[in-house]
Structures are given as C-alpha cells and as structure tokens.
C-alpha cells in the first residue's frame, strides 16, 4: 500500500523489480500503490472511523535499510514508520508490525537473497534495529508473514518475486531453512535484549489451507492430505513449535523423491545442527495463522511439478460446490478454518502452549463492476468469524485475535490491482488515490462495535 517506491532514498525491492519487468497483471507496479507513504493522517483517520483496536502493517526492509544493511540506514524511512506508529497509538489503535512481508531489498537478492547464509545475520540485525527504534510503542511483532509463499511461489514456481523456478528443489528448501534460522535469531534478539524493558511478543504468521482427504475412506488419500499439511504448514510449524527440526513425514517423503526430479542436483532437505534445533524450538509467543481457503487432496504421483505438490505426491483440488471468489486459488469453506484451528491445537500446541492469532483472513472481489457492493465478502467474513468462535466455544481452541485482510485494496503480487481484498475501495485511476468504504466496511464496523458483548459471553477475543 505504501507506494513511493524510490522516495527519500528508499532502496529497490524485489517487487519493484518484478513490476518494472512487467511480470504483474497488466504491467501493474507498486510505484504509487495506495500512496499510503503520503497519507498517514488520512489512513489513521479512516481506521478510527472503522473502529479497529489493532492495525497490522509491514515494515519495508529497503525503506529502513535501502541496501539491506544498517550502514545504509534511512532517517526518512525511520521517520515514516515513527509517524505511522505514533498516529496509531495516539488514536488508541495498537500497532502490529511485520518485519518481512515478501519485499526483500533487491541489493540482497543480487547477492543470492534467501538462498544464501549471509541473510540470517542480516535479518537479525534488521530486526534488532526495528525493535530498538519502534519497540517502545509496538508490542506485537510478526517476523514473517506467509513465509511458505516466499519459498514456494518466489523460488519454486516463480509466480512471485524474485520469480525464480528452482526445479531441483535444493535452493527452494534452502530458502525455508534460512527463513527459519532468521526467524529464530530475531526472536532471540528480542528475548535477550528487549522483552524485559518493552514487554512485547514476537511470533510468526504462517499461512495454511485446510486439507480434506478426497475420499476419507481411502487411507492413501488421508495420508496425502496429511502430507499436504506437512508440506505447507508443518514445513515451518514443526521446527518452531515441536522440536526444532523438520517432521519425519517431510524427511521421508523428500528422501523418497530426491532422485525423481534431479535436474543436475538431487533434491535434499538441509539439516539443522543440534545447536540450531535448540535455537529454533519454541521461538514464538503465539501461533500466527493466515488462512483463506481449503482443498480436497488425493494421492498422486507428483512427478516434477515445481514446488511441494510435485515432491509431495498429492493432488489438490476444490469441490465445485464450494463458493468461488475473484481469485483462482481462494474458495469459501468456513468450516475449514475451524478444522484447521483444532488441528493446530492438537498437533502443535500440546507442549508449546501459546495462543493462536488469526493474522490474516479475507477474500478478493473483482476490480470491475460495482466496487462498493461486496456482499460476497460479508458472507465470507461472517462465516469465517462464526467458525472461529465455534472453535473457541466448542473445541476449546485459544484464539485471541482475528485480523481481516485487508483494510484497503492494494497491490496483490502477480495479480497487481486486479483482485481487491479491501474493506475500503481505492480508486487507482485517480492520482489522489481516494478511499471509499464498501458495504463490508459497514458490516465489519458493526462487528467491532459489538465485540464488547461477544467478550462477555465468549472470552477475550479481539476482532481487529
């Protein structure tokens, strides 16, 4: 949403490069986006009108450190985030900051990005700086948002920046390996230096679909659905929330497939040292979950399809009766959220007992037609919020926060501005980028206004 892609010395990111190479829909770029860099007061005013008590945003690494390193620190970039955070706090809105939401400084990508070991220390130093600068007011931190997308779509299928297709999987696995170590180092920096004086929380926002067996009576489909979840959620969750290492399901399957799609190098899962396992285990103060959709999964020989589906030997698809959205990957199945929350509770939170924060849930509508009439979004959000509440009241899942994606329409990766996730419509044809509330904004404001009544009946759930 920020835009101002090169303003005040900001460094180029991989998404700037991706857009300028015309890889997004209709040659869209993030050059201006919603122009939020210049509209802090407007956006915070609109947030107050919506009635939210929390606003989740991401910090652009390249706006703070244009080259990715502290020596290039931009005073103007730091000032922008200070102004945003201060405006939120003054308005009674709790800022939630994400350190990395996909936009790596291009200068670091030129050095190999997430495939290289240097990135771990660089991210640790960037996180340290952000905690020191903003942590007196920011008490909730996501180190990464949807890191699976970075590995799978950025370095596996090439659909996202930096647009690499790594068919032999070695570097794809290395990306996740380095992200996990980077997350752990950031958590330890906060734990060692800032938790005492600042009193905040640091976690990670993992993304996952819900996977249902195509035929629940077939053991092979049940096993395939489990592999799907292991290759999506478990790839990151198992090391952090269980034992510091990849799951045995993941190891066994990758070992089985390592010679099927060799290219020039066999697919081998990197290994953690005993010290690294101890360093990673338990490094999250909450279980952040981004969830949007569900899949039916059946057993299949994946062959050499890029990404986890190929190496995981499963086929994922949707039931044609499930309501569709403007996105080709999001269908509406609210019960999937409840099932996933129970799965997370029972699989990952039995020993590392932390609350679940739903850090992202939403659906897109078409950019054409009547942009303010989004009753389908109201149906979607109503269904998913209800299922989250059922998980709390009926299943005993400790869900403490529900964050809708998103506040306003924005740049949606390869889809550019063709898919609209916002409660507020942004007119990208107008240079002033005016914002207008959609029907879903009024609906959601009412949900928020009634939250006090929900709290008294249910438990402490923050609808944000």
From TrEMBL:
<dbReference type="GO" id="GO:0005975">
    <property type="term" value="P:carbohydrate metabolic process"/>
</dbReference>
<dbReference type="InterPro" id="IPR017853">
    <property type="entry name" value="GH"/>
</dbReference>
<keyword id="KW-0326">Glycosidase</keyword>
<comment type="subunit">
    <text>Homodimer.</text>
</comment>
<dbReference type="GO" id="GO:0004553">
    <property type="term" value="F:hydrolase activity, hydrolyzing O-glycosyl compounds"/>
</dbReference>
<comment type="similarity">
    <text>Belongs to the glycosyl hydrolase 1 family.</text>
</comment>
<protein>
    <submittedName>
        <fullName>Lactase</fullName>
    </submittedName>
</protein>
<dbReference type="InterPro" id="IPR001360">
    <property type="entry name" value="Glyco_hydro_1"/>
</dbReference>
<keyword id="KW-0378">Hydrolase</keyword>
<dbReference type="Pfam" id="PF00232">
    <property type="entry name" value="Glyco_hydro_1"/>
</dbReference>
<keyword id="KW-0325">Glycoprotein</keyword>
């Amino acid at each position: 949403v920020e835009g101002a892609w090169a303003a005040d010395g900001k460094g180029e990111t991989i998404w700037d490069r991706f857009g300028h190479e015309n890889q997004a829909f209709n040659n869209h770029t993030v050059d201006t986006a919603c122009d939020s860099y210049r509209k802090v007061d407007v956006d915070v005013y609109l947030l107050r009108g919506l009635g939210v008590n929390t606003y989740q945003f991401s910090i652009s690494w390249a706006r703070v450190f244009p080259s990715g390193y502290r020596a290039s620190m931009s005073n103007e970039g730091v000032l922008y985030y200070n102004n945003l955070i201060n405006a939120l706090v003054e308005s009674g809105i709790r800022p939630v900051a994400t350190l990395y939401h996909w936009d790596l400084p291009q200068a670091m990508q030129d050095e190999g990005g997430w495939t290289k070991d240097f990135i771990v220390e660089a991210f640790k130093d960037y996180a340290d700086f952000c905690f020191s600068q903003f942590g007196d007011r920011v008490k909730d931190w996501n180190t990464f948002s949807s890191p699976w997308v970075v590995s799978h779509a950025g370095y596996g299928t090439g659909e996202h920046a930096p647009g690499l297709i790594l068919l032999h999987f070695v570097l794809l696995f290395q990306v996740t390996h380095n992200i996990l170590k980077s997350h752990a180092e950031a958590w330890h920096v906060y734990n060692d230096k800032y938790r005492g004086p600042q009193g905040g929380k640091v976690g990670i926002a993992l993304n996952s679909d819900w996977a249902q067996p195509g035929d629940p009576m077939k053991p092979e489909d049940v096993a395939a659905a489990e592999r799907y979840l292991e290759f999506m959620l478990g790839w990151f969750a198992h090391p952090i929330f269980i034992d510091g290492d990849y799951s045995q399901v993941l190891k066994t399957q990758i070992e089985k497939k390592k010679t099927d799609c060799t290219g020039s190098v066999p697919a081998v899962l990197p290994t953690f040292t005993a010290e690294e396992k101890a360093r990673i285990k338990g490094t999250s103060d909450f279980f952040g979950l981004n969830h949007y959709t569900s899949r039916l999964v059946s057993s299949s020989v994946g062959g050499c399809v890029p990404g986890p589906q190929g190496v995981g030997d499963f086929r994922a698809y949707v039931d044609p009766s499930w309501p569709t959205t403007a996105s080709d990957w999001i269908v509406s199945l609210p019960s999937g959220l409840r099932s996933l929350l129970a799965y997370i509770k029972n699989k990952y939170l039995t020993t590392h007992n932390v609350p679940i924060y739903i850090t992202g849930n939403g659906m897109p509508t078409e950019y054409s037609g009547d942009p303010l009439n989004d009753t389908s979004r109201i149906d979607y959000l109503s269904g998913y919020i209800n299922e989250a509440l059922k998980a709390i009241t009926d299943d005993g899942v400790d869900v403490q926060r529900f964050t809708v994606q998103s506040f306003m329409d924005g740049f949606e990766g390869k889809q550019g501005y063709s898919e609209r996730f916002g409660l507020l419509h942004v007119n990208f044809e107008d240079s002033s980028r005016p914002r207008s509330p959609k029907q879903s904004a009024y609906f959601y404001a009412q949900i928020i206004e009634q939250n006090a009544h929900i709290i008294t009946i249910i438990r402490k759930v923050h609808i944000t």
